[in-house]
Specification:
- This protein has a domain of about 50 residues.
- It is built from three helices and no strands.
- The chain starts with about 25 loop residues before the first helix and ends with a helix.
- The protein is mainly alpha-helical and about 70 residues long.
Length: about 70
């Protein structure tokens, strides 16, 4: 079972393993992801790439959506 609410484990019988998952990509990971998806080097990313990271805070769902929009509009 996966959940963001650790209190649900209070009613679970048996072994419980809590694993914290990172909320999003770091700036480095985000820029690398954008460059990889756009098939360009990180150095060739436009200035807006930093703004995309700042606005999305590395949220992977947002980055995927934005990248798909960029690919389909190209």
């Amino acid at each position: 079972m996966t959940t963001r609410d650790a209190s649900v484990t209070d009613v679970v019988n048996g072994r419980v393993l809590l694993v914290k998952v990172q909320d999003g990509f770091t700036q480095e990971e985000s820029l690398s992801y954008l460059a990889n998806c756009l098939n360009i080097s990180e150095q060739d990313l436009p200035e807006q790439a930093d703004q995309i990271y700042s606005e999305s805070k590395g949220n992977t769902l947002l980055l995927v959506s934005l990248t798909l929009d960029l690919i389909h509009s190209a």
